[in-house]
Structure formats: structure tokens, C-alpha cells
Design a protein that fits this description.
heterodimer, A: mainly alpha, 6 helices, 44% helix, 0% strand, globular, disordered N terminus, disordered C terminus, B: alpha/beta, ten-stranded mixed beta sheet
Chain lengths: 133, 343
Amino acid sequence: MTPPETVRVRSRSGAGPAPADRLFTALAEWRRRPEVVRDALELLEAAPLASAGHFRGDLLRRLMDLPSSYWARQPAQYARYRAVVRAAALLRRALPEAERHAFWGDLPPLPRGDAPGDAPADAPADAPRARAP
Amino acid sequence: MRWRRILIGVDFRTPSLHAARWAAAALGARAELELAYVASPTLAAFDDSPAPTLRTARAGLQAFAETLRAGGGAAGAGNGAPLRVRVHVEAGATVSRLCALARRRGADLVVVGRGPVSTRRGRTLERLLRHQRVPVLVVGAGAPVPAGPVRRVLAALDTAPIGAQVAGAAGAFAALAGDAATEFTLLHVGREGPGRPERWTSEVEGWLRAQGEPLAAELRGAGVTDVARLRVQAVAGVVAPVVLAAAREQGSELVVIGRNGRHAAGATEFGSAARVVVRAAPMPVLVVPPAGERPPRGGPRPDQRERRGLRLIPPTPTPTPPSPRSPIATPTPAPGPCPEPAA
């Protein structure tokens, strides 16, 4: 099995590079989500099956976990996301069967137990986090 | 009650994909699985034509179905038979579309995923539970995928008529497991009546055994002879915490609970006990609706544009008849009360 590629792009939201694994973790949180999604899309446009180390395309899978309500607020990002999903689908057809199936595998648990989309994307950074009842 | 045709709601998020894998492993051996994706009309509105997005969704769903066939249900099949999986892609309001699809396809069971508990999410799940006329299996993202049919089932029985349906639904899982040892617990949680607690307990346990008799008879009819592991338990207390504690203590792989809706606050609610159990149980929860229930006022909310008469996408074409090796007859849609959205 080919090791997952590591693609790095210059982050516009931060000072340093935005490796896939950092974006993978950041996508699970809601702070500055539009910026994080923008960085992730930038990375995925260059390599639609970019990996954070779990399986090929795991970063895209994390992006797919975002709720529809997020994309409804970000139509420009949604257009880019659609293009990335289609490009990744085409690339996956060329993968070996095992890697193709691995794309649909379970993602690792979220770092703090919350799902993406628990808080609105435009919520202030110090807004209270969602709590279990 | 038998699970022959199972509709699985998939939105490509991790919980729904996990629920589909769980269903394939636990139920795929003897049932036909139908994966359904309902595209949000809000997002479809960004497209000049929604067709490419829906085509991508269909391709994704087919790829996922291929993954399930390749290994997702192999462990559960037992007899080596490949999983039978179909896909459906539609656009519209999720709840009304899934209700309509379940009715149209004659689904016996609907399976959906549940993400981590949050106070801000889960309304779609709750509306679906309230409006579906068939049992809904909710699989949490953390529930381990079983190696085959589930073996330990906890059924929470109410004294209302729905108790028999809950027991029947639990029995359907035992029928899937065949003669493999399946452990049942029939649990009743209630308030102790006047008199000594021991008397209340023995009376309720007697009632539970009576509830278990038709269940055992049905299992024998299905060829399952080992029904000795049927336990009954009467506990005084508050329903949801007691059910959750008992399920954890007994290592139950599945909890079956009815939704009476007696404590429902409105058309989107379905009762406090079932609601709490669905949201908090680490294992999958099967929610059984009462038989002959009238739909809530208004029914599931169709999409705005559907109400104006605009169809975003034609309904999924009628699939080809089942293959000769499939024992499943073409279903005739039951006149269920789940309303069809306005065309």
C-alpha cells in the first residue's frame, strides 16, 4: 500500500504551513471554521485525496462531516467543495480496491467528543460550547 | 415481525456510514438493504442544475454499497451470500422524503446514524422518529460493529399495548440470529403500587412472562428453539436511567423501546423516555411506534419548493424485479399514515 501523500500549502489564516493533519483536527472544532475550511479546500484542490495519516482521502471525509447548514452559509466554499468531491471520486476509481474501500471507513473519534457543526460557524470564539444534556 | 427490507438513511457523514455498516453486519444476512440519500434542497439551489450533484451522490452511494458488499456484511452473512444492496437518491426535505421512500419501498425497518449528543443537533432524527410508521433503529457513532446478528437484547416493556410490539420487534432480532444463543431481557420500569414491593415485583414479572410467551411462540415458528435465555426484570424507578443502567450492566448489544408519545410536547417530540434513551445509549436503540397511530398534525414538513409544486428531482425509477434467488416479493405499499409530500 502506498503511504499517504503529505501535501502542504501555505496557510492564509495562520503564519505557518497547513499540513493535512492539523486541518484534520481543526475541522472538528468550530473556531474560525471558515478559515480552516478555506485552507482545507485549498489543500484538497491541489490533492483531492490528501491524507492526515489515516487513509487516503481522510481529510475530505472530515470535510464531508460538516453539516449542510454550514455549506448553506458559505455558497462560494460549497462550489469549491463540490468540485473537490467530484475530483476525488474520479481519482478513487483508479485506486486499488482496498484503498477505495478504505475511504469509506470509520474516522478516528473527534478530539473533544463533539461533532463538527455543533456550533454555528459565525459564533464568537468565546461562545459556550455545546453540552450534552 | 420480520426484517426483510431495510431502508438506511445515508448523508455521507461518519455516523450514517457507521450505521449502515452496523446494519449490514447485524441484519444484512437475511434482509435487503436500501441505502437512501436525500439531498438538501437548500444546497441544490446553489446549482443551476442539481443533476450533477445528484449524480455525484449516486456514484458515491454506489461506491459505498460496493464497499459494504465487499466486506461490510460478510461476517454477518454467515451463509456466504452476498449482501443485497440498492441505492436511492432524492432531493427534498429529509424527513418527509425518507418517510415516503420507506412507505413506497415497503420497508420494515429504517436505520439512521446518530452523532455525539449535542443540544443543538438531532432535530431531524427526532422528527424522523416521530413521523415514521415503522420501527427506527438509531445507531450511535460509537457502537461497535457486531460480527453477526446481535445476541443480547434488552426490551423495555410498557404496560400499554405497545409492549407486545416491542417484544415482537426484539424477537425479530432473535429470528435473525437463528438458533444461536440469544439472551433476552424483558424489563419493565414503573412505579410500585400499594403494598409490599416484593408483591409488585412478582406481579410485574408474571406479566412480563406472559408477554414473553407470544414472543417465544413466534420464535419457535421461525425455527428458533433455544428461547430458554429469556429473563424478566421489574424495577421501580424512572424509565430512562434504569433502562440505560440495565443495558450497560448486562452488556446489551441492542435496546428496544416503544414510543408512546404520552409525554410528547408536540408534533416533533416523541416521548421523554425514548428520547433520553436514544440520545444517551451507547448501543443501538430500536424505537417501535405504536400500531395504528395517527400521524401528527401536519405530518413531516415538505420542502418549500415542493409545496409550490416544483419537483427537484423525479422519484427514483421503479427498480427491476428482484432476482429469482431473492425470497423477497415486490412490496405493495401499505396505506401508512405517513403522508406523501405534495407533488
